[in-house]
Structures are given as structure tokens and as C-alpha cells.
Amino acid sequence: MLPDTTQPLAMPTHLRTPCPRAGGLQVTPSQSFHILTAVRTPRARGSPAPIVPAPCFPPPQTLRDFPTPSDGVCTSLKGQDCVCPSPPVPRFFSGSHTVQRMYGCDLLEDGSIRGFDQYGYEGTDFLALDEDMLTYTAADAAAQITKRKWEEDGTVAERRKYYLENTCIEWLRKYVSYGKDVLERRERPEVRVSGMEANKILTLSCRAHGFYPRPISISWLKDGVVQEQETKRGSTVPNSDGTYHAWVTIDVLPGDRDKYQCRVEHASLPQPGLFSWEPQSNLIPIVAGVAVAVVAVITALAGFAVWKSKQGNVPGDGGSNSLTTGTK
Asked: What is the location of CATH 3.30.500.10 in the chain?
């Protein structure tokens, strides 16, 4: 399925400029999203039905130009002919309709490249480019009509593949070089493992904080074997400083806790990290209690010593050691 149209696409709007046609329809590209909205306008009775405008595919060397209409034939600003395939949506309609298009290219870490070119109509899949077969895959019977007409031209898929695997990749490499410092930034994740027992079930939690870039793999191992189905995952979400955090949990038997480890793989780590839960020792509360008791005893003895010394300094009351003088 095509993504929600509320999400911005990467390619500039002018590269997705539609090819206007006469016939009572107004087609307007969004400034931020590739959404072509066909609006039916009033026409005189008996006039021919409007034709839905089709996206325009200029030759690769003129992709930066805006196509312009000329007697129903699209031409670029340089006068180069551009291919205007048949309408990518059904001709019979009324009211407003939405055509979506999403295309782009990926440059993978291993140096391989791939591209995609997809159309949607009314929020559902319509046509998708098959780069290997140099054709478009139709999602339904209505799309088959457009697919056949595009294939009659014989160059639509070939032109799109050329653009995706050459021009698009060239731009991508250039923009990656502009943001090299940011893109190559590496922040190691801070990993914390904790556990909480309830109803004879121990829930182990593994959290990674402050890592960058976003891709990360966190998994639970039992005796070295990944426990994918038993693992519950949270979303990888951003922090205020541009780093990310993520977490995974797993429910285990308390007696098996020593069999489990959390494995974290990230671009900032030379090799995957393994982390285990180390619960606090039961001696800690005991030692703390003994320390408090010792302090209390020392305080009491010190207080008693101070009190005793004050009692020894009280003046005599006329006892046997006192001297008295007087006359009868």
C-alpha cells in the first residue's frame, strides 16, 4: 500500500509537475506532497467528457524543466518532447479524486542501488514499476488499461529506470556528501537491563539510550538462541538531543533468568554487545541495617559519655571531704 499522504516525500515538487490537458479539469500539484487533485468543472451540455490529466515523463536530460502544454502535446522548456502516457486513472468519474505518486531511490551500504515508482488512486495501489522486467505492475483491472497503453509507448518504464538508477542516485550522492558530518555521526547506546517479578513471572527489560544513527537491533537470547517470537518491542523514538532510545522485554521463569542475555547491535559498536540482568544482592539491605545500628550505638555511647562528664563537674554538697569553720 502507498503511505499516508500526510507524510512528506523526498523529491522536489517541480520534478513531479503534471502534464496539463484541456477538457474541463484543473490539476494542481501540492507544494509539499505529490497529490494531484482532479476537480470537475462545469461544461456546456453536449460537450465531450473531460479527460483526466496524466503525469508527464520528460526525457532524463530535461527532468529539471517544467513541462508546458501545447495543443495537447507536452513539451519541455527546451523544446524536447516528453512522453505523456495515457491517464493513470479511470476516465469515468464525478466530483474530486486523488492521484498519488511516490518515487525515489536508495543507495545501500554495500553500494547497491534500487529505485521505486508507484501510483495510487483514491488511496489504494494502482501501478508500480518493476525495474527488472521494465514494466508496470497493475493492481486491478482498471490499472491494466493504463499499463497496456504505457507499454505500447515502449519507453516509459525504461526512462523511469534510467532516472531512478542514474540521475536520482547522482543527486543522492551529492546530498549525502553535503551532510557527511551529520550522517557519519556515531553515538554509542547506553544499555540497561532490569527485571521485575510478579505472579511467578519475571519480566526482563533491555533499554538502549542515547544512540545515533537510528537503526539498531536489540534482541533477547536464551542460551545463545534468539527468542524473536517471545520478545515484545517498543518503537525507536527520538530524544531531545537528536539521539534515539528503544527497548525490548521478555517474560521468563525466575529460575531461568541466568540463561537470558540482551544482544545489542549498532553502527557505533565494533561488535554486538551482550548484557545480562544482575539483580541487587540481598546482603545490601542487611549491611545497610547493620551500619545504621552501629551508628546508633556509637551515638548513644557518645551521648552517655557527655552526660557522665557533666555529672562529675557538679559542686560538692557538704560531704566528708568538705571543710567547715565556725564558733559556738
From this structure: 23-57+95-183
CATH architecture of the domain with residue range 190-275:
Sandwich (2.60)
Do the Cβ atoms of 194 and 205 come closer than 8 Å?
yes
- CATH number at 23-57+95-183: 3.30.500.10
Closest by Cα among 133, 143, 35, 37 to 85:
143
CB count within 10 Å of CB 84 equals 24
Q: How far apart are CA 265 and CA 313, in angstroms?
A: 74
Arithmetic mean of pLDDT, 155-162: 92
pLDDT(324) > 70: no
Residue 18's DSSP bridge partners are 55
Q: Which residues contact 126 (CB under 8 A, 6 or more apart)?
A: 88, 89, 119, 120, 138, 139, 140, 142, 143, 146
102 has pLDDT over 80? yes
Element (H, E) at 252: strand 244-252
Across 299-310, average pLDDT: 76
pLDDT band at 48; cut points 50, 70, 90: very low
Q: Which of 158, 177, 166, 173 is nearest to 107 (CA)?
A: 173
- Residue ranges, comma separated, of all CATH 2.60.40.10 domains in the chain are 190-275
Give the per-residue pLDDT at 171: 94
Distance in angstroms between the alpha carbons of the first and the last residue of the chain = 126
